[in-house]
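Quick one: co-fold with magnesium ion.
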Amino acid sequence: MDRITKAARLMIVSDLDHTMVDHHDPENMSLLRFNALWESNYRHDSLLVFSTGRSPTLYKQLRKEKPMLTPDITIMSVGTEITYGSSMLPDDGWVKILNQKWDRNVVIEETSKFPELTLQAETEQRPHKVSFYVDKTEAQVVMKELSSRLEKRGLDVKLIYSGGMDLDVLPQGAGKGQALSYLLNKLKTEGTLPVNTLACGDSGNDAELFSIPDVYGVMVSNAQEELLQWHAENAKGYEVVKFYLFYERWRRGEAANCETYIASLKASCHSITDKARARQDPTATFVFPTGVEKTLHECIYAMKGCYGDQKGKQFRVWVDRVLSTPTGSNTWLVKFDKWELSGDERCCCVTTAKINAKGSGGASDGYTWVSVQQKWLEGYEKKDTSIWLF
Ligand code: GLC
Ligand code: MG
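Sure, here it is.
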């Protein structure tokens, strides 16, 4: 391998199909532009990593079809194969890790019982990856059933659905995200952890790239439905941004006085329903920077009365440094700085929100706000707090 001796200024970890490579662009304009940018400004001090679902065979084929650069590191077969340099030297340490709780034969045996599954081409069947096609309409049910069967057989596997058609069965420790974690760890022990890492992708097998700590992410605008779905279920920071966009427009009198959004907000606040009472769940609370505590329902009620109260005035709201971390399989902690510009006054609250998945169906049933807590950022306290709402 071309030895990595210095920490990279930037490491880009990019998916290929429909991310780095636009199959609808016969002229390959964006790819060629990226190539020029990379070679002129980054090649000398940064790392290019391709992370693809393709096997080495199909990867090499794509390289023949498209004007692609030579990456420093290649992650293939959905994170089950890592190679270095242009000679593509395999990482044997990674292979050993993947052998844990993995038995290809059992996977083949169990999957053969599902008529909904069609095996992909022979080239795409790899030592730590068994791949199928399955119809969109049947995918969820098949995945649930298959995963419980494999668990009963003592295997710890990961099922990934991509592009609305591909189903990959991998060892639990595999996947693009795990491979990236492994790589970052390795670079760290060698004292060459990249200064910045950016992951890019468009489909289901890229989702885990976006939960690796300290890695920036780009979901391309043509992202697949299953990735958008994953984003809606997991990236809770998005809900925060959406709420404050609405809140600003509401106070400026620009949002349609929409009862439906308010109703959905109310419904997303943890409240005393009979079920909640039975579980002895607390009501969602909001702790103001002043120390005053209210229920979230009271806050929403107060907001209802403030529609357009900032009309014609200088009033802006934005959030910065949003960080959403899962704290359990169905719970998240979202931290962010909430800024408010009102006239000449600019204030900021360091905010922590706890969010839970609603119902038993996991995150897909929606979410609830459990609590929100704010503290003034030093030097940015608001003087008149009589109408501080969120
Ligand atoms: C690539 C691979 C295929 C895999 C898919 C999704 O298309 O060739 O085997 O199922 O990526 O990960
Ligand atoms: Mg892709």
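If it helps, The pocket of alpha-D-glucopyranose (ligand 1) is lined by residues 53-54, 58, 78, 120, 124, 131, 162, 166, 168, 205 (CB under 6 Å).
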